[in-house]
Amino acid sequence: MPFNLRNFEEEAKAKLGVNECVTHKMVEPFQVLYEKHNEYVAQFKYTVLILPNGLKVVTGHPFDENCYESEHSVQDEEMKTLLASKVGQGNQNKDKKKRRRAKKSKGAAAGAADEDADGDSGEEDAAAAPAATADKAEVKA
Questions:
Q1: Helix (H/G/I), strand (E/B), else coil: 106
Q2: Residue 48 backbone phi and psi in degrees, to 5
Q3: Residue 132 pLDDT
Q4: What angle do CA 56, 68, 1 make, to 5 degrees?
Q5: What spans are recorded as compositionally biased (Basic residues) (predicted)?
Q6: Is the CB of residue 21 less than 8 Å from the CB of residue 27?
Q7: Are strands 54-59 and 47-51 parallel, antiparallel or unpaired?
Q8: Among 13, 109, 114, 120, which is 20 to 30 Å from 45 by CA?
Q9: pTM for the whole thing?
Q10: How confident is the model over 75-134, as pLDDT tens digits?
Q11: Coil, helix or strand for 24?
């Protein structure tokens, strides 16, 4: 968000602090642009948080492309697909979790079918399981 250094109480200290922030790229200077007479130019800026599960748009106004017509167009097909994708696609991890759960449930169903086919009652495995947990408890202690 743009601000003016003249709004600070101590302008000299503000200049020093802002210059330090600019050199460390914490603050970006607001560029004043001039256009030709009777020409309209628009800038659309927004802030995005990069999160582990995707992007989240924090600030900015919604932009409706259908309201505007450009005299230029993108020719590169790869760039067109990138521009057509949504900014906030962050549900990819949820899809992975669903696939893992489906695989586990299919694997468990297949494992149970194999045991039934062998004719084992599963009593031997159940008796061995408490011994394995007891060994783990001893290692932790």
A1: helix
A2: -125, 135
A3: 46
A4: 45
A5: 95-106
A6: yes
A7: antiparallel
A8: 13
A9: 0.30
A10: 999 998 988 887 655 555 566 777 777 777 776 665 555 555 555 555 455 444 444 444
A11: coil
